[in-house]
Amino acid sequence: MLTHQHIRFSVAPMMDWTDRHCRYFHRLLSRRARLYTEMLTTGAVIHGDRARLMAFDAFEQPVAMQLGGAEPAALATSAVLVEKFGYVEVNLNVGCPSDRVQDGAFGACLMREPARVGDCIKAMKDAVAIPVTVKCRIGVDDQDPEKALFTLAEACVESGADALFVHARKAWLKGLSPKENRDVPPLDYALVHRLKRALPDVPISINGGLTRIAEMQEQLQFVDGVMIGRAAYHDPALLLEVDPQLFGQSAPVANLFDAVDAFLPYVERELAKGERLSAMTRHLLGLFAGMPGARSFRRRLALEAVKPGAGVETLLGAVNEVRTAIARFAEAEAGNPPPTPNLPKPPDLNSPRAPPKWRSPRVAARRRARRPCSRQSAFSRGW
After folding, report:
1. Which of 333, 350, 376 is the last residue in one of the domains?
2. Which residues pair with 133 in a beta bridge?
3. Per-residue model confidence (pLDDT) at position 341
4. In a domain? residue 344
């Protein structure tokens, strides 16, 4: 059974971002966060390379799989496979507005079809024992958000949905790109709060625009959980605060440097299997955001991790850029700035002017010819 504590904090499913390497590193930063896969369509789960698409490390748990689809039978079959792989939850995507998703008539398009969503939920609930949840928007296009969200939520709950994750924005299927749909439509947290009051027994998590722990703590006064996406990816240091601030437990590692050290054995194992270093380190580019040396860290990883044969020494070298920059900053703060490079000595303005260098008559004539002539001389020459 899915409880309120299970969804108190989660990292949203994000296409091209929350793959198994990303989730492993995030788990090093928080033991309590609920992690989600990238969305997989029912076609990919049923007909694709499941070993490659669905495999994960047991260390990632608790981890949930998000499915994309609109056919109850296909979703039920996919949910069975998700359960067999060991995921703790299956989540239905009813919020993605991308063109590819629209072409398949699922994702945010399903906000218009609450009855179909209910059928999909029921088919999955009948097929598996793990929790079945829904991630949705508050509406699409010209829908009235209050009516659209409440109607969808009621259909999901009646069909047995175990929890709702609500992105507190509309999605505009025409006129806005997926990126714009993450920022442009205004947030309506109050609507999600009203939904929670109407469904007090249903675990409800809020998503959208949350970037700081204080903001999350405020939302937890009204709903059961918070789900964050880009904030966790671009600034993973945020996850170090989750366990102490939201669960009253100590963080699994003391700092970001210890997190990298803990990540190294995993990196070495994956490299030995033939994985590229850049496939793992691309998720670390935002790790030291705002710290001295962060730019050098990102640049070094971006340029060197993609090279054939790049190994853990590349990652360690990039981290050392931050360590060195922090040490220099500390020295400067303590009043012991690092030695400056030898620069040319500035001229002494009080010393007598040195005599001009000798020039040949020909050079001197050319210099005089390039000088602008005075108004009087120009007039006298008839210019």
Report:
1. 333
2. 91, 163
3. 60
4. no
Instruction: Give the separation between CA 231 and CA 213, rounded to whole angstroms.
Output: 11
Of the residues 247, 267, 294, the one at which a domain ends: 247
Domain that holds residue 274: 256-333
Q: Which of 96, 109, 120, 156 is catalytic?
A: 96
| pLDDT one-digit tens code per residue, 154-169 | 999 999 999 999 999 9
How many angstroms separate the CA atoms of 205 and 188, rounded? 14
User: Does residue 96 have an active-site annotation?
Assistant: yes
Angstrom CA distances, 357 to 217, 348, 365, stand at 74, 19, 15
Mean pLDDT across the chain, nearest whole number?
Answer: 90
Tell whether 36 and 138 lie within a shared domain.
yes
- Sequential DSSP letters for 106-149: -GGGGGG-HHHHHHHHHHHHHH-SS-EEEEE-S-BTT--HHHHH
Please report whether residue 301 resides in a domain.
Answer: yes
Query: Model's pTM, two decimal places?
Result: 0.85
Amino acid at 237: A
Q: Are 79 and 67 within 8 A, CB to CB?
A: yes
